Amino acid sequence: MDYTLNFGAVFRGLDNLLAGLLLGLEMGLAGLLIGSVIGILAALAAVYGGRPARILVTTYVGLVRNVPILVLALFAFFALPQIGIRFSNVVTFAAVLAVYAGAYLTESFRAAILVIPKGITEAAASIGLTRTGTAIWVILPIALRNALPSVGNNFISLFKDTSIAAVIAVPELTFQARKINNESFRIIEVWIVASLMYVATCALLAAGLRGLERLFPKF
Amino acid sequence: MQSFASVLDVSSGLLLRGLALTVAISIAAVLAGSVIGTVIGPILTYGGRLSALPFRVFVDVVRGTPVLVLILASYYMPAGLGISPGPIEAGVVALSIFCASHVGETLRGALVAIPPTQIDAGRSIGLTFPRMLWYVLLPQALRQIAPNFVNTAVEIVKASSLLSAIGVGELLLTTQEIVGRTFMTMEFYALAGALYLAVNLTIGAGGWWLERRFSAR
Q1: H-helix or E-strand containing A106?
Q2: Would you kindly state where each structural domain of chain A is located, as residue ranges?
Q3: Residue B197 falls within a domain, yes or no?
Q4: Is B213 inside a domain boundary?
Q5: Using CB atoms, which residue from B82, B179, B192 is nearest to A1?
Q6: Predicted local confidence at residue A153, as pLDDT
Q7: The pTM is what?
């Protein structure tokens, strides 16, 4: 094996790699925020809505969770423009991430809502809160705190899924790494560095999540 | 202007071959990964801090890396070491490593949850540790992780779609080729999604059936 490690090319491209990493985090955050809105609404609909709402939410979750995210992204990026829905590749992928995250977050929030003891709802009714009022002022704050670990783990998975955006030429970390790979042939170095950047970011996110969990403990 | 039905008629063989390759790759990766993961799990749980360390590092690095990066790394990196595997081999290796790390970590969680009294009881009837693992600890732990295992299998099937990025002729790449020829993006990407949905729902249903069989015991 006559391959001598030389990290020069990778270090020259380091600001590209870091810019890609940042873009991944931004897309992940956008996906998480919008996905959370979708998730909370869908979870509330599934728990408090009637049978048709539950069937709709179950279909949405089942569909999005069982189809690869790459298929969803290619559909959104190549098929939707044919009916007029066309956005940049970054926006398209962030939207796909939001829909994808929404499905997983729906399950997280639904579980968090269902764990709340029935006594809480009864207490809220006994002080005169309507069903909507109970849902907004009593159930939701508790459920959001309960769901925090699950949401945090979803965000870490979501951040890793942003690497798939490289397939539709979004200039995030994996795309930049592949570019350095193709231009400099420093194969082993660039993939070690890219992988370690992902691992380090995930470790930092996990540590941050543990800190947040200590700040907002489960009910 | 061709109709969807006529194109489907012509390309159905191609699509089925892509689907078959997807299923074959997924099965290979899940099998290999589960075997390796079943070895890694006990090492992580029962190995000393020193001997478990390389496996701990391996599992944490693999779990912190996106699957696409694992796939691209296992496709490009061997060239630097002088070997040149094909894209299918590289893809199966990457997916197996991915599966092994997930199974190993989940198995570790299940093994840690087994009360230590089980090990004491095993020792008191004279079982050596390997026998304890095979007859007492692993059966309980593997039964425990069965639902999670189904999720991992579904993740592997979804991750196999990423092998299209390194040129493996599985379902997604085949779909892209057909779309490239006919420009019927909506129809064929929807069809691909439906096929993946069918495969994964089948895996889920199989998992339900297995769970019912095992809990009836």
Answers
A1: helix A89-115
A2: 8-215
A3: no
A4: no
A5: B82
A6: 93
A7: 0.91
B180 at interface of A, judged by CB pairs closer than 8 A: no
Question: Which residue has tokens 């070895």?
Answer: B39
Residue appearing with tokens 């499905």: A103
User: Is it the case that residue B2 has pLDDT exceeding 80?
Assistant: no
Is pLDDT of A57 > 90?
A: yes
| Tally of domains in chain B | 1
Segment (H or E) for B31: helix B4-46
Handedness of CA B127, B128, B129, B133 (dihedral sign): negative
Supply the CATH number for residue B91's domain.
1.10.3720.10
- pLDDT (tens digit, 9 = 90+) per residue, A149-185? 999 999 999 999 999 999 999 999 999 999 998 888 8
Q: How far apart are the C-alpha atoms of A202 and A28, rounded to whole Å?
A: 12
B26-41 per-position pLDDT tens digit = 999 999 999 999 999 9
Give the CATH number of domain A8-215. Answer: 1.10.3720.10
Interface test with B, best of A187, A193, A198, A201 (most B CBs within 10 A): A187
Mutate to test the interface with B, among A7, A195, A204 (most CBs of B within 10 A): A195
Decide if B109 is inside a domain: yes
Number of CB atoms found within 10 A of residue A180's CB: 24
Report which DSSP code applies to B145: T
